[in-house]
UniProtKB/TrEMBL annotation:
Residues 56-253 form the Aminoglycoside phosphotransferase domain. Keywords: Capsid protein, Virion. InterPro entries: Aminoglycoside_PTrfase (IPR002575), CotS-like (IPR047175), Kinase-like_dom_sf (IPR011009), Spore_coat_CotS (IPR014255). Pfam families: APH. Transmembrane segments: none annotated. It comes from the Bacteria. This is CotS family spore coat protein.
Length: 335
């Protein structure tokens, strides 16, 4: 029996597009882990339109060309294409990044993650992407916040008209007014900040964001080096978007301990300076109740998750409300 006989037929067709002697393949989370004669690789189906994938591929290549190589860079096919086409589907191959997922509750991991993010942002400068409107987010924070606030208002009015309300509906109604008021506060903070000025400067210098800097997308190897994977959601936007997202993840993981968020900011600033004007913009980002809107949107629009799971998420936000308020209030004085 030959080595290729150990691989499913479809994967033989895909992997034959590469200079790769594959021995074994198995599913791993959202990708396939490929064992080859010269190491391990990740194979992933591309579910974006080709033009949109070009934005993602181009962003990663830009980082690599500007000194940031700590990414799962796409390996070209034998013909030099960034993806393999097989039976109408596209697949991307990259080196497997060995290590463990970051744990943002561990100070050392948080330091590595924050410093790695700042280095990524520095290297992102000057990326002029292929046009893909959905990825270009310059100057959109206000309209995005307003749209989501208005959706919460629409959900509220719609749920009130329901005669037989679910547990989700009742809990949502008990907290929606508070979170609408948080939307208003976030918009007021944004209006008082230098958002337009910062946006204009960063757009001119063409930075971009990873846009999904979750702990599982930061891999730390045995030497303590941080790597960033999964650029599927990268966008052209303020670097504060990523930084604020990291700080929020740390806040939620720590029970809204403002000191942990300040650590993330401190470590990030060891690599890239964050001006006082940027910190004002961060205040708006941190205040906006993105997760509350997200769980409501998932329930009332997307409707692709179980009610039990969504209810757990919603209950978390309701229970965390006092801690969230206290943590953000303290953070606003210290940031």
């Amino acid at each position: 029996m030959g080595e290729k006989d150990l691989l499913p037929e479809d994967f033989i067709g895909i992997l034959d597009r590469y200079e790769l002697q594959a021995l074994h393949i198995e599913p791993y989370k959202m990708v396939y882990r490929v064992e080859g004669r010269d190491g391990f690789f990740a194979l992933k189906e591309i579910k974006f339109p080709e033009d949109e994938f070009c934005y993602i591929y181009g962003a990663m290549e830009h980082l690599a060309a500007h000194g940031f190589s700590a990414i799962n860079r796409t390996i070209p096919t034998r013909d030099g294409y960034p993806y393999a086409l097989w039976k109408g589907k596209r697949y991307a191959l990259s080196r497997w990044i060995g290590g463990r997922e970051a744990d943002y509750s561990r100070r050392g991991d948080l330091k590595t993650a924050a410093r790695t993010l700042a280095a990524l942002h520095q290297a992102s400068e000057g990326y002029f992407p292929p046009p893909w409107e959905g990825r270009i987010k310059w100057g959109t924070w206000q309209s995005s916040m307003e749209d989501k606030m208005n959706q919460l208002l629409d959900f509220k009015h719609g749920v009130r008209r329901i005669k037989r309300k679910s547990n989700f509906d009742l809990i949502f109604l008990s907290s929606v007014d508070y979170y609408i008021s948080e939307c208003i506060k976030a918009l007021e903070l944004l209006d008082k900040s230098a958002y337009d000025q910062i946006n204009q400067k960063e757009a001119a210098r063409q930075f971009f964001c990873h846009h999904d800097f979750a702990h599982h997308n930061v891999i730390i190897d045995e030497q303590g080096q941080g790597y960033v994977i999964d650029f599927d959601y990268c966008i052209s936007d303020l670097r504060c978007h990523d930084l604020g997202s990291l700080m929020l993840r740390v806040l939620k993981r720590s029970g809204w301990d403002q000191n942990q968020a300040l650590l993330a900011l401190k470590y990030y600033r060891q690599v890239r300076k964050v001006s006082s004007k940027e910190r004002d913009v961060l205040q708006s980002f941190l205040r906006f109740p993105q997760d509350f809107w997200q769980v409501a949107f998932a329930c009332y629009v997307e409707q692709n998750q179980s009610e039990e799971r969504l209810l757990r998420k919603l209950q978390t936000w309701v229970l965390d409300k006092p801690l969230r308020e206290k943590g953000l209030h303290k953070l606003a004085k210290l940031i």
